[in-house]
Design a protein that fits this description.
Elements: E1 7-13, E2 19-27, E3 56-61, E4 75-78, E5 83-86, E6 93-95, E7 109-110, E8 112-116, E9 123-127, E10 137-143, H1 184-192, H2 197-212, H3 237-241, E11 243-244, H4 256-281, H5 290-317, E12 328-329, H6 332-338, H7 343-372, H8 375-406, H9 410-421, E13 424-425, H10 432-437, H11 442-445, E14 449-450, H12 459-465, E15 470-471, E16 480-481
Parallel strand pairs: 11-12
Antiparallel strand pairs: 1-2, 1-10, 2-3, 3-7, 4-5, 5-6, 8-9, 13-14, 15-16
Helix pairs in contact: 1-2, 1-4, 2-5, 4-5, 4-7, 5-8, 6-7, 7-8, 7-9
Domain Rieske: 33-125
Region (Disordered): 218-248
Organism: Piloderma croceum (strain F 1598)
Length: 490
């Protein structure tokens, strides 16, 4: 699988629960740089020349030691005697073998070897492990760049949602023509207030690209007057018309098109959840490192990719029912409202309950599409499931980070958060293998239930749900969301 891309994100976890994020670079085999074999530098296998087309493999920490910028999109420059990665934020350069920089800083690098397994003749990549832990396990190996599906074509048949859009409707630009965002927090709030799902995906891709390539003024969570996210992200009138209050009214989702539509709806809310956790809790937790925002920006990008893959597949499979024409629900956001005052609760309920439950049910859904012979939908669902494991991993990583910061035991704290923020039992069967890959050992979730607190009738929830309504305007004009964009240039 290393031949599919030139860069991969790696996440390691030790038996002590420590996380280590790395980036693997696979360079062209045409390089003329000679391997270095000194003990304190990069070590290549003597047989690496025989292992083409793998070429040169390098592993280094995924964030710049200067200010924590994401190095996944670093420029690679080849010098006479070295290959360097150049940080996109402030142009700090780091030797991929030694980690040394001309600025005096040093990034952590790890030796890589290619060994041929004598039992089956398959080449295997081995890497040196960090010193500050034991029994390190690779829990994530994901390409840095994966293609999005092309947007589905506008339906031409009658009765579709496209007919409800007036001819004179204003098409918003990806970057607003006035008061354009300059920080990640401003982009987060703008995207949360973007009702059009296609534009939400486009803005997510653009904002994450700006972050990774150092084109934002700052993350912005330490600003004196940070932007405020909406209580509930607005939805276009068309989607509101098809939104039901009780998910049980949707019935059984047996038809493939109905299932894909329901999954796309979940992914649209998941995009908002990834941006909301940054915008809502970043300003109140100024000690959050840049890696937190890199992880959840990547999550927002993943969810956008999932949404585009699902809606594109839905448009191909069932042109008469494009996304937005079938009933959907907004119950996932109920949990976001309940956890709106606590980052620890948000991580626990959204990422270690909801998304972990997704790991439990996804294999069954995948198997259903496999039995039906729908290979294209199957491929989409397999990509989504692999990504979702990494999302639970991120939730576990930052939940345990907060517990360590606050001197709390992660397992007992998680179970306490679930008791306070969940209703009913966390039911199996559980996907123990993928939960374990994501860091969730059985003591997290076995025999776990929340208190029957009746939170769906909570007054604060009812008040927050009012933000989902729209205001009627003049006949023939599109409705406007009651929530407006709130950010400034600061």
């Amino acid at each position: 699988n290393l031949l599919t891309h030139s860069r991969f994100l790696l996440t390691l976890r030790s038996s002590e629960g420590k996380y280590h994020s790395l980036i693997l670079f696979r360079l062209s085999t045409g390089s003329t740089v000679e391997p270095v074999t000194t003990s304190d530098q990069y070590v290549e296998s003597p047989d690496i020349g025989k292992s083409a087309p793998y070429g040169q493999l390098y592993v280094m920490e995924s964030t710049c030691p200067h200010l924590g910028a994401d190095l996944s999109h670093a420029e690679i420059e080849e010098c006479e005697t070295s290959v360097v990665a150049v940080c996109p934020w402030h142009r700090y350069d780091f030797d991929l073998r030694t980690g040394k920089s001309e600025t005096g800083l040093t990034a952590c690098t790890y030796a890589v070897e290619i060994r041929t397994d004598p039992t089956d003749g398959v080449d295997v990549v081995w890497m040196e492990t960090p010193e500050e832990g034991s029994n390190w396990r690779l829990v994530q190996l994901q390409p840095v760049s994966e293609a999005f599906a092309d947007p589905p074509p506008l339906p031409a048949s009658t009765g579709t949602m496209s007919e409800s859009v007036p001819d004179h409707a204003v098409v918003e630009e990806i970057v607003p023509t006035s008061n354009a965002p300059t920080t990640l927090m401003q982009w987060a709030v703008l995207i949360l207030n973007t009702a059009d799902p296609t534009l939400k995906v486009q803005r997510t891709k653009h904002a994450v690209d700006l972050l990774r390539n150092g084109k934002l003024a700052s993350i912005g969570h330490r600003a004196s007057n940070p932007p405020r996210p909406p209580d509930t992200p607005p939805r276009e009138e068309n989607y509101l018309r098809n939104t039901v209050s009780d998910p049980r009214k949707l019935g059984k989702r047996k038809k493939a098109a109905v299932m894909l539509h329901a999954l796309a709806n979940i992914e649209q809310w998941a995009i908002d959840l990834a941006w909301d956790i940054m915008a809502r809790f970043g300003p109140s937790n100024p000690d959050l490192p840049p890696a937190f925002f890199s992880d959840f920006a990547k999550m927002a990008l993943d969810e956008s990719k999932h949404f585009s893959l699902l809606t594109s597949r839905l448009a191909t499979m069932s042109p008469s029912t494009p996304y937005g024409t079938l009933p959907v629900h907004a119950s996932l956001w109920d949990s976001a409202l309940i956890t709106s005052n606590s980052l620890r609760a948000r991580l626990a309920i959204i990422h270690l309950v909801h998304e972990a439950r997704g790991l439990d049910v996804n294999p069954g859904t995948i198997e259903r599409f496999r039995r039906s012979g729908d290979k294209d939908s199957l491929a989409v669902l397999e990509v989504i499931h692999a990504d979702e494991v990494t999302h639970v991993t991120s939730g576990h990583r930052w939940f345990t980070w907060m517990c360590e910061r606050d001197g709390l035991d992660p397992v007992s704290t998680f179970r306490d958060e679930v008791r306070k923020g969940w209703r009913g039992e966390i039911k199996g069967p559980f996907n123990d293998d993928d939960r374990a890959r994501a860091g969730m050992t059985k003591d997290f979730y076995e025999d776990l239930r929340g208190d029957d607190i009746g939170w769906r009738k909570d007054a604060d929830l009812e008040k927050a749900l009012e933000n989902l309504k729209v205001v009627d305007q003049e006949p023939g004009h599109p409705a406007a969301a009651t929530v407006k964009v709130e950010y400034d240039r600061g």
